[in-house]
Amino acid sequence: MKLSGAEILIQSLFREGVEVVFGYPGGAVMEIYDKLIGAPITHYLVRHEQGAVHAADGYARTTGKPGVCIATSGPGATNLVTGLATAYMDSVPVVAFTGQVATSLLGTDAFQEADITGITLPITKHNYLVKKVEDLPRVIKEAFHIATTGRPGPVLVDLPKDITQAEAEFIYPDKVELASYKPTLYGHLRQIERAVNLIQESTKPLLYVGGGAIASGATAALHKLTELVPMPVTATLMGLGAYQGTDPYFLGMLGMHGTPAANYATLETDLLIAVGARFDDRVTGNIEKFIPNAQVIHIDIDPAEIGKNVVADIPIVGDATLVLEAIVESLAKRDLSGPKAEARRKWLEQTLAWKEQFPLEYGPEESPQGVAPQFVVEELYRQTKGEAIITTEVGQNQMWAAQFYCFDRPRSLASSGGLGTMGYGLPAAIGAQIGNPGRTVIDIAGDGSFLMNVQELATAVQYGIPIKVAILNNQFLGMVRQWQEIFYQRRYSHTCLRSNPDNVKIAEAFGAVGLRATSADETREVIAEALAIKDRPVVMDFKIDREANVLPMVPPNGSLDQMIGGGTR
Amino acid sequence: MKRHVISVLVNNKPGVLTRIAGLFARRGFNIDSLAVGETQDPEVSMMTIVVTATDSTLEQINKQLNKLIDVIKIIDITDVPSVLRELMLVKVSASPATRSEIIQIVDIFRAKIVDVAPNALTIEITGDESKIEGFLKMIAPYGISELARTGTIALVRSNCK
Ligand SMILES: Cc1ncc(C[n+]2csc(CCOP(=O)(O)OP(=O)(O)O)c2C)c(N)n1
Question: Which residue range forms the structural domain that includes residue B118?
Answer without folding.
Answer: 83-156
